[in-house]
Amino acid sequence: MAARATLNEKRAQELFDQGLGCNAIARELNVDPATVSRWGKREGHTFDRTQVQRANDAHAFDLAAARTRLARKMTANADKALDALDGPYLVYSFGGKDNTFAEHELAEAPISARREAQTIGAIAFDKLTKALEKDTSTVASAHSLLDSLAAGFAAAAATYEAPDAVE
User: Fold this and answer.
1) Are 77 and 45 in contact (CB under 8 A)?
2) In whole angstroms, how far apart are CA 39 and each of 7, 99, 119, 122, 157?
3) Which residue from 48, 68, 138, 161 has the least number of CB within 10 angstroms?
4) DSSP assignment, residue 98?
5) Strands (E), the chain
6) Between the CA of residue 161 and those of 23, 50, 90, 154, what are the distances in Å?
7) Tell me, what's the pLDDT at 95?
8) DSSP assignment, residue 86?
9) 102 φ, ψ (degrees, to nearest 5)
10) Report field, pTM of the whole predicted structure over 0.85
């Protein structure tokens, strides 16, 4: 059975004084977060959850940005596939017993290519529509993140002691 690491309370106190949260202290000391939580309770420490909330808000904002990037790419790919149908269409084949390459330009895209491009466009449209219906909170998330940051700055300013003025 593996030996469990014991909590270095002095180091835990140093990390707590630096403003690290319960999980960060646990990772640093290689102990279970519950061990740090019990230690904090014994010592009368509380772990600030506003930092966790700010991190969650920032993560949600990052996910919304990633969804937006993906939506742009999906739209661009669907547009490209559908635009390829407008005008002459190049078909080709490669192989045969002599392993030859052959190509031919058609006046318009064949039905199979049209169906495939329209399927790409329809899937992109459906996925983007669903994503936009779900993600109406992007602006609210941004405001929430900014509000959280402002609250953090206000809390820091409240505890800040200005150095004595030099005369």
Assistant:
1) no
2) 8, 73, 58, 56, 29
3) 161
4) T
5) 89-95, 100-106
6) 29, 22, 73, 13
7) 86
8) S
9) -135, 140
10) no
